[in-house]
Amino acid sequence: MNTYFNSGLPLCRPKMLQDEWVETYLFRVARANGIHRPRLSDTERFRPTLPATAVSKPNGYPIWSETTLPRWSVVTRANKIRYCPECMTQSRHIRSRWRLTVFDVCTIHHIRLKDDLAEPVMTKGYRQENRYFITEVTDEQLWAGAVCPMPSERRHVERLWSGFERSIVENDIPGACEQLTCILFLEALLDAFATEVREYEGASIGATRPTELAQLVDRYQFSLETNLDGIRNFLDQITVGSHRDKVLARLRRMLIDEAHRPTCFSKLPIADLRRRLLIGFEKSIRPADEILRPDHDQPVGYVSLESAASLIGCPSRLVKHLIDNDICQGVRIARHGLKRYTFLPSHAVETCRRWHASNATPEQVINELHIDRRGFVALLRAGLLRPIAVDPYKFFQRSDLTDLCRRLEVISQPFPTEAGHLYPLLGAWIPKSGRYKKASLEVLKEAFTGKFAIFRQRESAGLSAYFVDCAALERAHRLRKGEITGCTRQKYASQQLSLLPE
């Protein structure tokens, strides 16, 4: 006789709901069989006995078919449980698609996924504050703090994920898996593309990954389609040489990874796609004034690309970017088979060296002014730093940095012995967001004009040496009250009847 006690077969076997995650389903089975607080050993005992879970593994990866997903695209069962509040309100079960790392927004309800749910024992950190158990969470707790994506982010997410999620809801699993392969492939290429841009521009504080990618897609006017033709079109749209290098490196890494651990990407012709990008790159090379023969040495008055990058003091990819965009002219190219050797005129290298030495990257600004990224963003939003755009890179004139320090040095006062009432000039009193953000940035601009006291601590360096007192905070509070009053007056002015005779 087969019973729960001698075979592990559960007496009560609830039906698996649509797109339900295997791990939370096993916990639901355990509770249905009278185990109030299931352990992992209970779920592992049930796993091989149920048809819906027999092929699953304890890692908790979502399963839609026999195809393996790349490890970077999924999270294990110990990770936080993400969810859409509206979907959870309609049916209290965790969907498998929410376990995809790059799936951040529900395209059905246009809500960004939250991550404050936990399953006892399984979810890491389930005892932390602001964690709710799946079986105990209320509708109010599900909706607390829920936000919608920005319009550009919503358009980007819908382009990529709406078809996949629609197929899942309509139970078209083969179609969903086919789309998911192309989506993950495009996401990987977009990440490689974004890495190149992020290295010089820096990541925006508080910006989510979909927001950052959406901004890049809008900036370069990429059209994205979740099929093989869409992938080919995306590769054809990459025109900047440094961006191509990153994407080519990513495709090469995929080929190596697939040879060791085949995934759903094995269904795509990765080698052909990489060859297509290389051929497109060769066709788009700007004709040089003279193509050197392979047997020629380095021309007189020219330096190699690597030497030019060393003399200028910047990465080779920036020099390539200047060449690809005709900013650095007079370039000569030598071809040795498939290899290309680039030589730049010495006078052009010297001009680039002087220009690069007079400017600083965002990371250099942060280091030289001795501030954190919050302070850097505050200076940028207040208009005290003026970026020079060499798309997609950003630079800042060092003369502007010197001017900021000189202005504060002139108007500052000695640091008092009692400093308990002082606050760092670029400290936490300037919020990243919220109602006081605009007023605080206005006060920061006033600080550089000497409208209230600035104190300098000689032991510190850069802008970290300067402090303000409570007068700055009171000024920000007054400005905020003035904004509220003005908005209120404007809101009710149209509804107020005139007291003057008409």
What percent of the residues sit in helical stretches (DSSP H or I)? 40-55%
Spatial strand order of the main sheet: 6-8-9-7
Strand content: 5-15%
Shape descriptor = globular
Topology, number of strands: 16
**Which class do the helix and strand fractions yield?**
alpha+beta
N- to C-terminal distance? 96 Å
Give the tally of structural domains: 4
Characterize the quaternary organization of these chains: single chain
Largest sheet: 4 strands, mixed
Low-confidence stretches: 1-6, 285-295
Structure in words:
The termini are far apart. The protein contains 19 helices and 16 strands. The protein is globular and about 80 Å long. The strands form five sheets. The protein has a four-stranded mixed β-sheet with strand order 6-8-9-7. The chain has helices at residues 4-7, 22-32, 40-46, 85-90, 139-143, 151-169, 173-201, 209-220, 228-237, 241-260, 270-283, 305-312, 316-324, 346-357, 362-369, 373-381, 398-411, 437-447, 470-493, and strands at residues 81-83, 105-106, 111-112, 114-118, 132-133, 291-292, 302-304, 332-336, 339-345, 359-360, 387-390, 393-397, 412-414, 423-424, 454-456, 466-468. The chain has four domains: 4-148, no CATH class; 152-283, no CATH class; 291-357, Multidrug-efflux Transporter Regulator, Chain: A, Domain 2 (Orthogonal Bundle); 362-488, no CATH class.
